[in-house]
Amino acid sequence: MNMAQGLIKVSATAQSTASAEAVFALLAAGETWPNWAPIKTYALHTPGVDGGESVGAVRQWNSGLMMNLEQIVELQAPTKFAYTLKQSKLVAVKNYRADVDVVPTATGCSVTWSSVFDPKLAGTGWFWKFALGKLSSQLAAGVAAYAAKPAAN
Questions:
Q1: What share of the chain has pLDDT > 90, as a percent?
Q2: pTM recorded for the entire structure
Q3: Per the omega criterion (within 30 degrees of 0), is the bond before 104 cis?
Q4: What is the Cα–Cα distance from 88 to 2, expressed in whole angstroms?
């Protein structure tokens, strides 16, 4: 699959006073996502190659309006977390991949949530760019803020 041609990209960055390790720990632990992301429930659908939430694991998210199955495709603690969208009951995109880069800074870390995708339906790219761009902002800001709370560390 040629990922460079025709894909739409969205990206958002947030700053955190938390360490990169604290942010990465939240990204890697799906059960924490309902605390800081706009989702209601999480379940491990399929364990990864090394068990649990390792590379290859499929996570199930439910926000009330949508249910997604996402597969972890890259884990490089504490700086890189990536996943692909395997199935969605609402999000009409294909070839979706999200890369979350966590970069240590002098005061904590920066979290950049970038996604690439193709819309399934012609003419809807503008909508999905807006919607998934907003979601990227919510996710980056959510994990950055939650990781900085004393109770999260």
A1: 90
A2: 0.92
A3: no
A4: 22
